[in-house]
Design a protein that fits this description.
Length: 191
């Protein structure tokens, strides 16, 4: 049986910040595709206060989350226990894309570990915080983070592609606006 919470209490905070992977789900206001993105690197997620969380948005293959948040703000972040006691935590809320020009950006970056290709920080105001059993989630052993994304972004060829991509407007697979040309600089931005 699931339980709802008013705040991210100490138990929930410990659980979500210790998970090596989490999942981010967003969708456009109407029609279009629902997007679910796995996120690795546990040091890319932070609990800012009792109802606010944030994660480091590293440049990748798409901009679905950014476009959906700018379209309607709806977001859910899910954490599942693959070891230890079964548990699933979902944080539902309204997300905001914080780009480097935002005065809050530099202070937010201090919540995360060092990573190249930082595009933005996603800040989520949680309006529903739940956990449930997760009885059917399998046991899996965490070995280590894959360094591939960070390593890839450090290559000169990748930095060139990142610069080209950030110099152009970007949109979602459904044609929704995501980023203005030059709005972010993942080729040169590190956390």
């Amino acid at each position: 049986m699931g339980k709802q919470y008013d705040v991210i209490n100490d138990r929930l905070r410990t659980f979500v910040t210790s998970q090596p992977v989490y999942f981010v789900a967003t969708a456009p206001e109407s029609g279009g595709h629902v997007n679910v993105s796995p996120k690795g690197y546990a040091d890319t997620f932070a609990v800012l206060d009792d109802t606010t969380v944030a994660y480091l948005d590293l440049d990748g293959s798409g901009v679905e989350t950014i476009s959906h948040l700018r379209n309607n703000g709806r977001i859910t972040i899910m954490f599942a226990a693959f070891s230890g006691s079964p548990n699933i935590v979902r944080l539902y809320g309204t997300g905001e894309v914080v780009i480097p020009d935002d005065p809050r950006f530099e202070a937010l970056l201090k919540n995360f570990g060092p990573h190249p290709a930082v595009r933005s920080v996603i800040v989520v105001s949680c309006d529903r915080i739940t956990d449930s059993c997760g009885y059917s989630v399998p046991f899996m052993e965490y070995e280590k983070d894959r360094p591939l994304l960070d390593d890839h972004h450090e290559l000169a060829s990748s930095k060139k592609r990142l610069a080209e991509r950030s110099g152009a407007a970007r949109e979602s697979i459904d044609g929704l606006f995501a980023l203005h040309a030059g709005e972010t600089d993942p080729a040169n931005r590190h956390s």
